[in-house]
UniProtKB/TrEMBL annotation:
Signal peptide (residue range): none
Name assigned to this protein: diguanylate cyclase
Organism: Rhodoferax potami
UniProt-recorded Gene Ontology molecular function terms: diguanylate cyclase activity
Keyword Magnesium: no
SUPFAM superfamilies: GAF domain-like, Nucleotide cyclase
Record keywords, A-Z: Nucleotidyltransferase, Transferase
Length: 359
């Protein structure tokens, strides 16, 4: 028998393992082969036996319950030593190699054995398709040829199995790569979106910044023209903010701006747009809004700024209101809101003013 440490035997074991067949569940195609072998050779037992390092393992079997036996008892381990021909043992009682074999002296009581090696293209014999009987006998030439043909079929099945396994691996790798690419793409889109958000957001108050405001106002203005539904613009400017900064410091000033932003937001509807226009100046776009409604919102904002808790001293704001009806451009609307806000400053601050263009 081949020494398992022998280099050829090592290669044979490697070849066998590469098929990943050992200890796999029963499969119809292999079961059919042993049924045919048993039928053609007219034996009660037929097996597909694979010779592993220290055992023979049966991929398919009829007439035998065992799943495997130690390699030392395996007739097939002898058969694979001469891989080109069927090894036949007509009567184990007359064969010195097997007469004391536990499979002969005990269960299943082998008297006759014939095994056709499973010869792979690389020249390795992985095991056999074998038939066994409990009485001495001989195969006819046609039976012996049929057994060899069945053994070749099993080798084909094994080769197909390996190709399928490799294909599956390639497909899995491709799917994985595809998923990775998709994930990367999604991440890039998220990053792009975040970046875009960052360029449109005021870092101190998290409101829309001037850039975002300009775009939003253009869109809303165009929409208001299309839908013939007016919009209003509020310009909210904190009063005496320089004095607040000077008295309590820039950090306290920053905090006050954040509070003011929240106070304005708290009075806006979901579809209004609140932006930090610059410094201590905020804008609110009120789509689909009549002038009287805008004045109500502006008053509420003024009140909510006056009622901010947590400031070093109470804050107020002057608010200018502009109305889009009869106005030719978003730029003009901003000018009007700005003028209205200056009117509020001039009028004593902490108030809401409108600037209606002369008709
Ligand atoms: N802490 C802080 N202060 C800012 C910021 N942006 C602008 N300011 C300050 O806001 C102040 C605005 O001052 P002014 O334009 O004189 O206006 P004001 O003091 O509010 O006076 P009125 O508007 O006339 O009531 C300046 O001192 C700016 O330095 C900011 O992001 N943080």
């Amino acid at each position: 028998m081949l020494d398992p440490s022998h280099s050829e035997e090592k290669l044979r074991i490697e070849d066998l393992r590469s098929f990943k067949i050992l200890d796999t569940p029963a499969e119809q195609a292999y079961d059919d082969v042993v049924k045919l072998a048993s039928y053609i050779c007219d034996t009660p037992i037929a097996l597909i036996s694979l010779i592993d390092e220290d055992r023979q393992w049966f991929k398919a079997r009829v007439g035998l319950n065992a799943m495997e036996t130690p390699r030392g008892q395996a007739f097939c381990a002898h058969a694979i030593l001469d891989p080109d021909r069927v090894m036949e043992v007509p009567d184990t009682q007359q064969d010195a190699r097997f007469v004391d074999n536990p499979l002969v002296t005990g269960d299943p009581g082998i008297r006759f054995y014939a095994g056709a090696p499973l010869l792979t293209p690389s020249g390795a014999a992985l095991g056999t398709v074998c038939v066994i009987d409990r009485v001495p006998r001989k195969l006819t030439e046609r039976q012996s040829e049929a057994l060899q043909a069945l053994s070749r079929q099993v080798v084909q099945l094994l080769a197909l199995r390996r190709v399928n396994a490799e294909l599956e691996l390639v497909t899995k790798a491709q799917t994985l790569r595809h998923q990775q690419l998709e994930n990367q793409q999604r991440r890039i889109e998220e990053l792009n979106h975040d970046l875009q958000e960052q360029t449109l957001t005021d870092p101190l108050t998290a409101l829309k910044n001037r850039r975002a405001f300009d775009t939003l106002l253009s869109h809303e203005f165009a929409r208001s023209l299309r839908s013939k539904s007016p919009l209003c613009l509020l310009m909210v400017d904190a009063d005496h903010f320089k004095a607040y900064n000077d008295a309590f410091g820039h950090v306290a000033g920053d905090q006050a701006l954040m509070f003011i932003a929240l106070a304005i937001k708290s009075q806006a509807r979901a579809y209004d747009h609140v932006a930090r226009y610059g410094g201590e100046e905020f804008c609110v776009i009120l789509p689909d809004t009549q002038l009287n409604e805008a004045l109500v919102v502006a008053e509420r904002i003024r009140d909510s700024i006056k009622s901010i808790h947590g400031l070093r001293r109470p804050m107020s704001a002057s608010i200018g209101v502009a109305y889009s009806e009869g106005i030719s451009s978003p730029k003009r609307l901003v000018e009007l809101a700005d003028r209205a806000m200056y009117l509020a400053k001039q009028g004593g601050r902490d108030r809401v003013e409108i600037f209606l263009p002369p008709t």
